[in-house]
Amino acid sequence: MTPNRMPHNPYETPRSDVQQNEALPVRPVKGILIGLLIDLGGSILAVTAITFAYAIYIGTQGASASEIEGALTSTDPTSVLGAMHSLAGLGMSYLAGFYCLRISRGTNLRYPLVLAAIVLVLTMGAGVAWNLMDLLTLLGLSALTVGATLLGGAMALRRQS
Q1: What is the pLDDT of residue 5?
Q2: Which of 14, 15, 41, 46 is the right S-S partner for 88, CB 3.0 to 4.6 Å?
């Protein structure tokens, strides 16, 4: 039988030279950069969409323009809008940690930890520079972000095995 022809038995499994155990290269920089894009870019897009939808909602409930402006400029994470923003950010951090590990082909939480550290430095720097909220709240939300990123990485590890 020649290699390019089908076997005489049409129900026989075809032969192939594919090796499943080939080691794939590790890509930490690509994984971390895409994770950063998912975390920061996804959070910005999600917060923008939530804010827009919330403004429409409270506008249809009869709120005045000044009430809408006050609700949208408040950075209180315990408000309804602040809680939705925090949940969206945590969700994006989870996805970022998950895809960081999957794309980088890591075998432990090293790369999601690097991603979490980069995001921590960026968010703490921006939060302190722009005086968005008190330092204790900022630290608490940052700790939750690190936890969400590592949880996403841990879920990716579980999925690999």
Answers
A1: 61
A2: 46
Could you write out the three-class secondary structure of 105-149? CCCCCHHHHHHHHHHHHHHHHHHHHCCCCCHHHHHHHHHHHHHHH
Sign, CA dihedral 51-52-55-61, equals negative
| pLDDT (tens digit per residue) in 40-53 | 999 999 999 999 99
Report the distance separating Cα 124 and Cα 135, nearest Å.
9
Angle subtended at Cα 47 by Cα 45 and Cα 51, rounded to the nearest 5 degrees = 120
Q: Whole-model pTM above 0.90?
A: no
